[in-house]
Amino acid sequence: MSVKSGINNSKAVMLGLLTIGLIGLLFLIVYGNLSGNLGFASDTGAITNERINLTLAGNTPTSLTGVINPVLANIVLRNATSGQVILATNYTETAGLFASTVGGNFTNDFVNVTATYTADSTGEQQSEQVIGNLTGGVVSFFSFSNVWFILAAVALLIAIVIGIIFLVMKLGGNNKFSS
């Protein structure tokens, strides 16, 4: 094996790794831009007088079981016993989880929830899962790219050192550098 072929082989390996790295980066860019921009229509639904216990920890209406990323609107909470409308200052709502505020007047009371919601559609959820799997795989694969570049650089350095040794041995035999 000549020094020139060793350097050329190392160069080819490094160019191959660079090409694979660029392809991986393109995958991440494309799938990252697709995420959330696939044009799926959201699912819509309604909660009608569903009874929950309004606690500090919070409870979610069973109508929202399996619903991904719900955004609620037109929320009305009524005390289940008296029918009194509960003001928004007495509870918080986050993605369908209703919790009593500290010092709220209706903590541990049963309330009836009425609301409308929009949420991620099944197609959107499945597409996001595919994109997540692909980007996760690409990230896992390329997390080792630094190892491959280091190995290629070490191979290049070994080829250079071997070339220098052969060159010194060849020139040393001719005594061109001796005094």
Can you offer a commentary on this structure?
This protein is α+β, with helices and mostly antiparallel strands and 179 residues long. The chain folds into two domains: 83 residues; 78 residues, no CATH class. It is 46% helix and 22% strand. The strands form two sheets. It has a three-stranded antiparallel sheet, with no helix packed on it. The protein has a two-stranded antiparallel sheet with strand order 3-4. Helix 1 runs antiparallel to helix 2 and helix 1 runs antiparallel to helix 3. The longest helix has 32 residues. It is rod-shaped, with a radius of gyration of 32 Å.
Give a topology summary:
Blueprint: H1 3-34, E1 43-54, E2 71-79, E3 91-94, E4 97-100, E5 109-119, H2 122-142, H3 145-173
Antiparallel strand pairs: 1-5, 2-5, 3-4
CA(first)-CA(last) distance: 32 Å
Total strand count, please? Answer: 5
Estimated structural class: alpha+beta
Largest sheet: 3 strands, antiparallel
In percent, how much strand structure appears in the residues? 15-25%
- How many H/I helical runs? 3
Radius of gyration: 32 Å
- Into which percent range does the helicity of residues fall? 40-55%
Whole-number mean pLDDT: 81
Structural shape: rod-shaped
How many distinct domains?
2
**Low-confidence parts lasting 5 or more residues at pLDDT below 50?**
none
Could you spell the SSE succession in H and E letters?
HEEEEEHH
Strand order of the largest sheet: 1-5-2
